[in-house]
Specification:
Helix content: 25-40%
Number of strands: 16
Structural class: alpha/beta
Shape: globular
Strand content: 15-25%
CATH superfamily of the largest domain: Medium-chain alcohol dehydrogenases, catalytic domain
Distance between the termini: 15 Å
Largest sheet: 7 strands, mixed
Radius of gyration: 20 Å
CATH class of the largest domain: Alpha Beta
Number of domains: 2
CATH architecture of the largest domain: Alpha-Beta Complex
Order of helices and strands: EEEHEEEHHEEHHEHEHEHEHEEHEHE
Amino acid sequence: MKALQYTAIGAPPEVVEIPRPTPGPGQVLLKITAAGACHSDEVIMGLPAELYRLGLPLTLGHEGAGVVHEVGEGVTGVAVGDAVAVYGPWGCGRCHSCAQGKENYCQDAEALGIRPPGLGAPGAMAEYLLVDDARHLVPLDGLDPVTCVSLTDAGLTPYHAIKSSLPRLGAGSTAVVLGVGGLGHVGIQILRAISGARIIALDLTEAKLALAREMGANDTVVSDEGAVAAVRALTAGRGADAVFDFVGVQATVDIAMAVVAMEGEVAIVGIGGGRASVSFIGTPHDASVRSPYWGSRSELIEVFELARRGQIEVEVERFSLDDAARAYERLHAGTLRGRAVIVPGG
């Protein structure tokens, strides 16, 4: 079968031929219908050899959807022909966090060597994907896999971050979104759907700010040296009750910390490597900073329900598997409007 693999440190990914896997006991083999490209993949492929830990070659793709093609011995709950999406942050299934569906916070995954598909285990940018357990499959129930596959990360990750902040986001509150990219443009829609917050979106280009307004942002601000003053002015000096940094570079983290209100919250979602500086004098009183990761299985079900009701959607650009490497070129260049989706059969 064809697969897009990262084969050598510093080299671009390439399409290769590899054997099609066979499901063992408890496993499920999917015929992939869609796989999403993510900035996380780019970060991984940019790591120097001394920091890279995921093994080579690595089949990319931690956002996946497909049709059940074959099941291993003992599999229940899914059948051949079912259209499903893959819940990505695989855990042990037995620890306290996993028992709550929070496999994104599995306490034993690292020690057991459990890795998400595309982030250590073979990923979804292939004609077939081997899934370790049927519990990691969520029915699509009529959703289009191409337009919805990115919700498994680009929807789930902002949903988890925002849902945890909902006590701060009632009527009269303000939320700031930093970065209107793959996650940020969905985050704006989620805020509109489940919170009472006024939404202020920040990005560097007018094209991204226009997208933010299309998605439901109430105000937009250029993310430059005047951004902090602009946000403070829009909030009558008070600042934001919650700030969601979907970029995570030092410049955006600094803005986030400068615009958060007293008793507010900063969620650093992007993996740009920025660090927040917190101190009694320099941080607004009782403001908090957190670094949420992905989301739970139950939250993915909720995200799909928002999509079914037409409350959120992902802007996508389609690429064939043969042309998948170009999706990462576009991602690196910053010319994608939303998310790149690889369609193996198209």
